[in-house]
Amino acid sequence: MTILHSAELSIFADYFQFYLQDEGVHEDWGAFWTDETLERMLAVGDCSIGIATVRNMSVPVAIAVHDDAPEADFHEWELVNECSFRVRTGRVMVLGCTEGTPQERARFSLPPGSYRVRVSYVGLDTLSDDALDGDDFYRLQIWPAPPAPTLTLKTRRATAG
Fold first, then answer.
1. Do residues 81 and 119 touch, judged by C-beta distance below 8 A?
2. Cβ contacts of residue 78 below 8 Å, gap of 6+?
3. Angle at CA of residue 122, ends 44 and 118, nearest 5°
4. HSE-up of 19 (CA within 13 Å, CB side)?
5. How many CB atoms within 10 Å of residue 74?
6. Are strands 137-144 and 58-66 parallel, antiparallel or unpaired?
7. Which stretches of the chain are assigned E, i.e. beta strand?
8. Do residues 97 and 18 make contact, with C-beta atoms less than 8 angstroms apart?
9. Is the pLDDT of residue 159 over 60?
10. Distances (CA, A) of 154 to 1, 40, 75, 127
11. Model confidence, pTM
12. pLDDT tens digit string along 127-142?
């Protein structure tokens, strides 16, 4: 497996979410966020995905584009989801839901086609009392693959409280 592109970003997760999407597509996210997708922390459109976060602040996000499915290294992650999405234009962006100007969006090239995205989450229970700081971290791994159902590969354990 070869990593074709990688980036470490700080994305403003306003409204507790950020997006990976084809640059030329504008899907209506109102219908995608349901009780089920909120519980899973992942909403899936045709050419974009929404990733829920535990903070309404800038969050660290690592992205890696692979030439094939990455190893299943789930032991260090609290929650792992996998879904499909399609790239039409060859340009993909990562952005917070209220980031309006093109300069605020991280962009990279991805050949048109069908892809799988594995979203891994860690540090979800590390928030400060005011919920402004934490050690939450979000990793997106992307590789070419035919469309397949959205799956939760590792479920988040409930915390005592």
1. yes
2. 121, 122, 123, 124, 125, 154, 156, 157
3. 35
4. 28
5. 13
6. parallel
7. 3-12, 17-22, 42-44, 48-52, 58-66, 79-87, 91-96, 106-109, 113-122, 137-144, 151-154
8. yes
9. no
10. 22, 10, 9, 21
11. 0.92
12. 999 888 999 999 999 9
pLDDT digits (tens, 9 = 90+) for 75-125: 999 999 999 999 999 999 998 887 654 555 688 999 999 999 999 999 999
Question: Checking phi first, is residue 132 left (phi over 0); if not, alpha (psi -120 to 50) or beta?
Answer: alpha
Q: Could you write out the DSSP letters of every residue in 35-73?
A: HHHHHHTEEE-SSEEEEE-S-SSEEEEEEEEESSPPP--
Task: Give the neighbor-by-neighbor strand order of the sheet with 151-154.
Answer: 3-12, 58-66, 137-144, 113-122, 79-87, 151-154
- Residue 120 Cα to chain centre, angstroms: 8
What is the gyration radius of the CA atoms in the chain, in angstroms?
Answer: 15
Indicate the DSSP class of residue 157.
P
**Pure H helices in the chain:** 35-40
Token pair of 158 as six digits: 């409930």
* Statement: residue 53 has pLDDT above 60: yes
What is residue 100's predicted lDDT score, i.e. its pLDDT? 58
